[in-house]
Write a structure and sequence with these properties.
It is a single chain. This protein has 519 residues and is mainly alpha-helical. 70% of the residues lie in helices and 7% in strands. The chain has a three-stranded antiparallel beta sheet, with helices on one face. α9 crosses α12 and α10 packs antiparallel against α11. The chain is elongated, with a radius of gyration of 46 Å.
């Protein structure tokens, strides 16, 4: 009985061991499969992550390549533009040199022709002198033979006849010379002006009554305004300008008619933005410092202008006024650059006419000096400038050139029309001044309106970009004498009622058209 139990127990133990081993094997197999699945999942996730990283790297590399290509293209375009600009400047310089050479060749040919003409005229005068001597001898002998006259009486009669003949020839010669002078005066004047323009070429700087200041962020824009607007009010009070803060991103606009105040405000605002500390006390400190810097710079601009214009002596009070013109514009043209241009043109024209070129240059440089303070003093800039020049001891020629270069005062010096001509050349040359399309169209309409307002005018057209108005009159109601009067009256009304750069030519056309039909 005991052996049977032992066998049964032994067999049960073996079965238990086998079952336990089978269960352990099954559990280990399940764990292995689970681990393999987790490894496969991790491998798939790792591969997906690696693919994503590779795609991001490729996209970043592509973007970087595109950005660098854009940057390279922009730099290349900048270099190309610089090269094109340099080529244009060289071409203009070559054209100017060719024009100078042509002008010199034309002058040489003209001198040669004049020398030949003088030589031929001298020969003709010698022949006439010999003929006249022979004629006098013949008449003297004949008079002594025919009339019973004394030598003194014969000489008196002969001289009287010769005097009458010479008066007639002199009158004809004077008339001929006057006609020749009229024919050549326009040509010579045009050559002088063209020569002056060719010898000077200046750039111009355009500006307006507003300046913009870049703002890095909207938060900085809020700091510029300040709590309840106290910072912007303090800034406007300290600088005397208007600060416009609107919805335009990254920009604040500074507006003022005084260009110096506008420049001070612009620089002060830029410094405040860079500093970051914006409050009323700091604003006053920055504005005070910038005003001193701008004052020094204005004086330096004045000294540089005197050096460039080769003017050695000038009243110290006038130097900063000249420097202020650097910040002043007229129709978009920088007034200081314009004044230097007028100074040079005035000198060239004066020297061509045999006048004092240094005095003409001084008149040209100071002709618009009144524009430096015309926003502070009542009156037109010619009257203001003349008063300043008189106050600081300038010559009468300079004072009259300043006061009368726009025709508001009677011309009292030969240098005044020279300055007026140089002023018109500088203002009306292509690209010197700018005006808006709306104002340009209004000027053309005003020209045609003035011309058509006169009785007898049938049509009027503004041409040549508003520099000429062509007036067509009714030939049946307007004769030649009245045509000239209408042209003068149109020109006077344009001068009185309009503002324009340079000059406007009024051309009046009167014609009769007869039409018949052959049937």
């Amino acid at each position: 009985m005991t052996m049977a139990k032992l066998r049964w127990a032994f067999g049960a133990a073996i079965v238990a061991v086998i079952v336990t081993a089978a269960i352990m094997w099954y559990i280990q197999r399940a764990r292995r499969q689970t681990v393999l699945k987790e490894l496969d999942a991790q491998r798939a996730a790792a591969e997906a992550q690696s693919q994503k990283i590779i795609a991001q790297a490729e996209a970043k590399a592509t973007n970087e390549i595109i950005e660098r290509r854009k940057q390279f293209d922009a730099e290349a375009e900048t270099h190309r533009q610089g090269l094109r600009a340099e080529e244009k400047r060289i071409a203009k310089r070559d054209d100017a040199i060719d024009q100078k050479l042509d002008s010199l060749n034309n002058k040489e040919r003209a001198l040669d022709a004049a020398e030949k003409g003088l030589a031929e005229r001298e020969k003709g005068l010698l022949n006439k002198d010999r003929q006249l001597s022979d004629l006098i001898g013949q008449q003297k002998t004949q008079l002594l033979k025919v009339a019973n006259l004394s030598l003194d009486e014969a000489r008196s009669m002969l001289l009287s006849k010769i005097e009458k003949d010479m008066e007639k020839e002199a009158g004809e010669l004077i008339k001929k010379r006057v006609e020749e002078a009229r024919e050549t005066a326009d040509v010579q004047a045009r050559e002088i002006i063209v020569g002056a323009i060719q010898r000077y070429a200046a750039e111009h700087t355009a500006d307006s009554t507003v300046s913009t200041v870049d703002i890095p962020s909207d938060d900085m824009k809020g700091r510029v305004i300040g709590r309840e607007g106290r910072n912007i009010r303090a800034f406007e009070k300290a600088t005397g300008v208007d600060v416009i803060v609107d919805d335009t991103p990254g920009v604040v606009v500074v507006s003022a008619f005084d260009p110096v105040r506008r420049e001070v405000a612009r620089r002060s605002l830029e410094k405040l933005i860079q500093d970051g500390r914006i409050h009323p006390t700091r604003i006053e400190e920055i504005v005070s410092g910038v005003e001193k810097d701008v004052t020094k710079q204005i004086f330096e601009y004045g000294k540089q202008a005197l050096t460039e214009a080769n003017i050695r002596s000038m009243h110290p009070k006038l130097i900063p006024l000249i420097g202020r013109l650097h910040f002043r514009t007229s129709y978009g043209q920088n007034v200081l650059k314009h004044s230097l241009e007028v100074a040079y043109l005035s000198q060239v024209i004066a020297e061509e006419l045999g006048l004092n070129g240094q005095l003409a240059r001084r008149c040209g440089l100071l002709h618009d000096i009144g524009k430096a303070v015309d926003h502070e003093v009542e009156g037109g800039h010619p009257a203001i400038g003349a008063d300043l020049a008189k106050r600081y001891g300038e010559k009468e020629e300079v004072i009259n050139a300043i006061a009368a270069h726009h025709g508001e005062v009677e011309v009292g010096s030969i240098y005044t029309p020279i300055v007026a001509a140089a002023d018109a050349i500088s203002a009306s040359r292509p690209g010197a001044r700018r005006e808006s399309l709306e104002r340009y169209v209004q000027r053309l309409q005003k020209l045609e309106e003035i011309a058509t307002s006169f009785e007898g005018v049938r049509q009027a057209y503004a041409i040549q970009a508003g520099r000429e108005v062509r007036v067509i009159v009714d030939a049946e109601n307007v004769d030649d004498r009245l045509s000239g009067k209408i042209a003068r009256d149109v020109a006077r009304r344009i001068e009185d009622e309009m503002e324009y750069p340079g000059e406007i030519k009024v051309t009046l056309v009167r014609e009769v058209r007869c039409v018949e039909y052959a049937k």
